[in-house]
Structures are given as structure tokens and as C-alpha cells.
């Protein structure tokens, strides 16, 4: 993953991604939210090329749960969610950004840039260091390093 993750989420990715790939799926994204009484671990999983079904998630969820029980990477109670990335899927890996070059995306930055943290437009270039976006609001091309990006999503346009 090219975007920064919570250290616990990164640990879970390192442990689970090889197992998920062996099952014929792709770990698209992960979100870990630490709570006071309970935490949330959400894994977004898809088939390579897209098209995961509810029945796939029903098969994969207990496998992931069992692996987490064996590795036990998370302290305390947590809720596990295994879900589809949805139509406005997150972009977390270099390959995701490359696959969606030329498409509409939304980028959220860690810190404001010109008073804004949300940028939307067409993704026009991707390299190892970051991306370029033709920003809808500013009508300029913006360059973002991966270290600046808090999150990014494909933005499907429903017409």
C-alpha cells in the first residue's frame, strides 16, 4: 500500500494479504479505528478485476476471522468487517492509481493546501512518488505526493 496506514492496520496487512491472495482475492483497503471499549477492523476485499459477490464475502469472512485468532495482532475487543470496496472504491496501492488514471477521483490530504483538504478531478499521471490531478475547483493541475494523501477514491459519475 502506498498510502500511510495506522501501524496496527499495516501489521494486519502484512499478516493477512498473502492468505487473502491465495484464496483468489485482493485486499483493496483496510481501516482500523481504535475505540475506548472496542475497536473496528474493516477489510475491503475484491476479486482481481472486480466482481466480488456476497457469497464470496461469506466464505472469506470466517477464514480471515480464524487467521486473526491465530495471529492475534490486535489487543482488546474489536469488530471485524469484511466488505466489498463498493463502486467508489478506495485507491490505496500504486496499481490502483495506475488502473484509474484518466478517471475521476477524490483525494483527501493530511494538511490543507490553499485552505482545502478535498480535491476532485481527473487523475492524469501516476508515478512512484505520487499523482497529478486536474482539479475541478481550482482548474489547475495539482501534484500530490503519496505521503500527503490521507485517502483517495474513484468517483463514479452516475448519469
Regarding quaternary structure, how should these chains be classified?
Answer: single chain
CATH class of the largest domain: Alpha Beta
How many structurally independent domains? 2
Tell me, briefly, the overall form: globular
How many runs of DSSP E, i.e. beta strands?
8
Strand content: 35-45%
Specify the number of helices: 3
Sheet with most strands: strand arrangement: 7-6-5-4-8
- Which ranges are low-confidence, i.e. pLDDT below 50, for 5 or more consecutive residues? none
Alpha-carbon distance between the two ends: 31 Å
Output the structural class.
alpha+beta
Q: Explain this structure to me?
A:
- It is a single chain.
- By secondary structure, this protein is of the alpha+beta class.
- It has 2 domains: 7-83, GMP Synthetase, Chain A, domain 3 (2-Layer Sandwich); 94-154, Ribosome maturation factor RimP, C-terminal domain (SH3 type barrels), CATH 2.30.30.
- It is 25% helix and 38% strand.
- The chain is built from 3 helices and 8 strands, in the order H-E-E-H-E-H-E-E-E-E-E.
- It has helices at residues 7-22, 54-71, 94-99, and strands at 26-33, 39-46, 78-83, 104-113, 116-126, 130-135, 141-145, 149-154.
- Strands 7-6-5-4-8 form a 5-stranded antiparallel sheet. A 3-stranded mixed sheet has the order 1-2-3, with helices on one face.
- Helix 1 crosses helix 2 (54-71).
- 22% of the residues are buried.
- The mean pLDDT is 93.
Draw up the topology in text.
Blueprint lengths: L6 H16 L3 E8 L5 E8 L7 H18 L6 E6 L10 H6 L4 E10 L2 E11 L3 E6 L5 E5 L3 E6 L5
Parallel strand pairs: 2-3
Antiparallel strand pairs: 1-2, 4-5, 4-8, 5-6, 6-7
Helix pairs in contact: 1-2
